[in-house]
């Protein structure tokens, strides 16, 4: 009887100690709100990270991913390639012209994932989640070229337009697009700033400025392929621009967004849950 009581007491003490052990914490992630304000507490940061964490619960499909990891100047990136021979590119904003999807996860819920190679959030958008710059979806122009002045990244001139029809993809500064493009493309999206212009870095971008954020962009290779890049942590404009120029060798590259940058890669099950406006979708042919 005495031995049984001792075992019972020991078991209770062990359970109590186990219950008091601190759970391992995930890596801290700095998040800036969409309005530029900072989270007020550690709990708010944790909640924000949980809300934005990539969904990886889906079983990866038995196909090769068009995306791969890359390291550059101490930073990690994910690099996805669209090949004109294998893929087509389209923009997506809203189902049947209604309310915008608002996120890649909402779009993924309606899409045939077997036909999607990958998708990213696109260019700048307003409070209504609609593009603030030139935007064409399925040959229908929903927004004219924006040549206004402003303080946001989008307005750091020159900004640019990524556009194309079928397997012919192009990228120009907004001014060059206005002067040289008269035929409406099948898809088109204006964003900014340009990161690389005809093989040269944007003249206003600092080598490694103080602005650090998770960023994504698209660059056009000399062979006509489109290179989509998203950083896995905060980076400067200069670093992501050099990744396009020095690592990928893209003559032209365009910033898509910062802080709200997101990727959907059905082949690996990655689905970033962040607020988004216009989307760029790479479909399998």
Question: How would you describe this protein?
Answer:
The protein starts with a helix and ends with a strand. It has 5 helices and 17 strands. By secondary structure, the chain is an alpha+beta fold. It has one domain.
Query: For the largest beta sheet, what order do the strands appear in spatially?
Result: 1-2-13-12-14-10-11
Report the β-strand fraction as a percent range. 25-35%
Helix content: 10-25%
Count of strand segments: 17
- Write down the Rg: 22 Å
Distance between the termini: 75 Å
**Assembly annotation:** single chain
The 3D shape can be described as globular
Into how many domains do the coordinates divide? 1
The overall average pLDDT, rounded, is 84
Summing up helix and strand content along with how strands pair, one would put the structural category as alpha+beta
- Main sheet record: 7 strands, antiparallel
Count of helix runs? 5
Parts with pLDDT < 50 across at least 5 consecutive residues:
1-61
The helix/strand order is: HHEEEHEEEEEHEEEEEHEEEE
Task: Give a short synopsis of this structure.
With 285 residues, the chain is of the alpha+beta class. The protein has helices at residues 2-20, 42-52, 104-108, 174-180, 237-248, and strands at residues 67-72, 75-82, 87-92, 116-121, 135-137, 140-143, 160-165, 168-173, 187-191, 194-197, 200-201, 215-220, 226-231, 252-258, 263-265, 270-271, 279-284.
